[in-house]
Amino acid sequence: MDWRQFLFGFHGRIRRSEWWLSRLIIVGMAAVGFGAAFGLSALDSAVGKGMPEGEAIFGIAGLAFALLGLVGLGATLWIHLATCVKRLHDQDMTGWLVLVTVIPGIGPLFAFVVMGCLDSQPWTNKHGPSPKPGAAERVAGQFA
Which of 38, 62, 115, 128 suits a disulfide with 87, CB 3.0-4.6 Å? Predict the structure, then answer.
């Protein structure tokens, strides 16, 4: 699976380790965004000393930064949804269960347990073959 399919596609299955990797990517994107926002805010405060109250120092740059932030937020949300749906597919569950993750309280717990802790199903399901190489053969060997 290539990176575009891994991060942005909604079809197929991914392993727990790949889901956790997507969480690190999302946290990294958020850290870069917050760092840039903090840096721009600090620069605005430093440069703005002595300026009349309410004067925009970074008017066009601030607008461009806000638009870039919205694009980044959209990309982060898309990555979250795509990787969660594929992880649910790995459990042979419908991708619509990703909506459970937005329920306060039980949503994050559901995501942690189902997507972050439960192992992949070793057999092929309607969403594709197991992402673990040789998983089906190991399970079949236990019953032989």
Answer: 115
Show the beta-strand stretches assigned E in 28-112: none
pLDDT of residue 114: 94
Q: 125 phi and psi, to 5 degrees?
A: -125, -170
Tell me the C-alpha distance between 24 and 31, whole Å: 10
> Does residue 106 have a pLDDT over 90?
yes
Under a CB-based contact definition with an 8 Å cutoff, are residues 135 and 120 in contact? Answer: yes
Residue 46 has pLDDT above 90, yes or no: no
Compare 19 and 34 and report the one with higher pLDDT: 19
Residues 6+ apart with CB under 8 A from 98: 81, 84, 85, 88
20 three-class SS: helix
β partners of residue 128: 125
User: Residue 49: helix, strand or coil by DSSP?
Assistant: coil
Helix (H, G, I), strand (E, B) or coil at 125: strand
